[in-house]
Design goal:
This protein has two domains: 93 residues, Arc Repressor Mutant, subunit A; 245 residues, Penicillin V Acylase, Chain A (4-Layer Sandwich), CATH 3.60.60.10. Helix content is 34%, strand content 23%. The chain is globular. By secondary structure, the protein is of the alpha+beta class.
């Protein structure tokens, strides 16, 4: 097992200031992620018919909607560009990549899980997430511990020039994001910016409302957990949504819609077989243990059934539109405000613990 630890960047102040601090501290990661995005579009050109200039033109169409609804997070992006000494246009493309490619990449194969105090051995509320993305961006992973001027402190994972959105805040709200593929996508607020806003929520209801803002471009599944033990999956598209509740104290979600009405607007479900295999596998493993711990969730995160498209994903060869791996795994203890993180596949790397004081 490798003992490497993802970098921790601690920031505070206004959103522009926090973005600038992130950009300065992660300058090489931001620049590298932009290079990787250039290469990804180049490799996928025959399928997408989209080059970088075209991506810039498309991304600019989404910016006015983001500025109108969440100017503070656009300010974070501007600060990041300033701190990293890169183009703001490039940062905009990174944060709108799913939208500008019309979800044709189908690259994310994430797995999210949560259990409340009825299903843990010590009464804690636990959340787990495997983040899958292109292998080249694994070196760009880092952890942000933030103290915004007018929002709750949070700790979250991100990589390169992407806004943070997977983590938890001081009010005990945790979020994991799983890409889903609706047919009703439109120009609007990019889903990364929508999910960034969830980290500022103070209650479960507010977190749900933030996923459902008007004029959103599309949507993720947002697996949301609260320190009280409330657990939801909010399946979102541009115009529709479904709220699923963890009735038995446990929940799993991957990269397809579970709700019956949402399945009616799923794009090309026959391409989403691996996500269904991961969903049922994780659900079975979660149900086999009545009293979970960080260790039992981490064991599920290392599972290799359906390898290489497994929960611990190693699909690094082949088509550039279907080539990715688990770049980091996170296990969060909301009760004790701890996040345990691997840098790379959890089967090969140790979990490092970060604390939100």
């Amino acid at each position: 097992m490798n003992s490497r630890t993802p970098p921790l960047i601690t920031v505070s102040g206004s959103h522009r200031e926090m973005g600038r601090q992130i950009g300065e501290a992660a300058r090489s990661q931001v620049a590298h992620s932009i290079e990787n995005a250039h290469q990804l579009l180049h490799d996928a050109y025959d399928t997408l018919q989209l080059d970088w200039e075209g991506a810039l033109i498309q991304a600019r169409k989404y910016l006015p909607f983001a500025e109108e609804r969440y100017i503070q997070y656009v300010d974070e992006m501007r600060g990041m560009a300033e701190g990293a000494n890169v183009s703001f246009d490039d940062i905009t493309v990174i944060n709108a990549m799913e939208a500008v490619t019309s979800d044709a990449l189908h690259l994310v194969k994430c797995t999210s899980m949560a259990v409340n105090q009825d299903r843990t051995s010590d009464g804690t509320v636990l959340v787990a997430h495997n983040e899958d993305w292109v292998p080249e961006d694994e070196s760009d992973v880092y952890i942000i511990k933030a103290r915004p001027d007018h929002e709750p402190p949070f700790i979250a994972m991100t990589y390169g020039g992407l806004l943070p959105n997977i983590g938890f805040n001081a009010h005990g709200i945790a979020q994991c994001c799983d890409s889903v593929y609706p047919t009703d996508s439109r120009i609007g607020v990019p889903r990364v910016i929508v999910s960034r806003a969830v980290l500022a929520a103070e209650t479960p209801g507010e977190a749900i409302r933030r996923t459902l803002i008007s004029q959103r471009a599309a949507g993720y599944n947002h697996l949301l957990a609260h320190e009280s033990g409330e657990i939801y999956s909010v399946e979102v598209s541009a115009r529709q949504f479904a709220i699923l509740y963890a009735c038995d104290g446990a929940m799993v979600h991957t990269n397809h819609y579970v709700d019956g009405q949402m399945r009616k607007i799923e794009s090309e479900p026959d391409e989403l077989i691996a996500t269904r295999v991961r969903y049922f596998r994780a659900d079975r493993l979660l149900s086999q243990t009545r009293e979970h711990s960080l260790k039992t969730l981490q064991a599920i995160q290392k599972d290799h059934i359906n390898y290489p498209d497994s929960i611990c994903n190693h699909a690094t060869d082949g088509n550039p539109l279907d080539r990715e791996k688990t770049v980091t795994a996170l296990t969060m203890d909301l009760t004790n405000r701890k996040m345990c993180v691997t840098w790379g596949n959890p089967c090969e790397n140790v979990f490092t613990t970060f604390q939100l004081e």
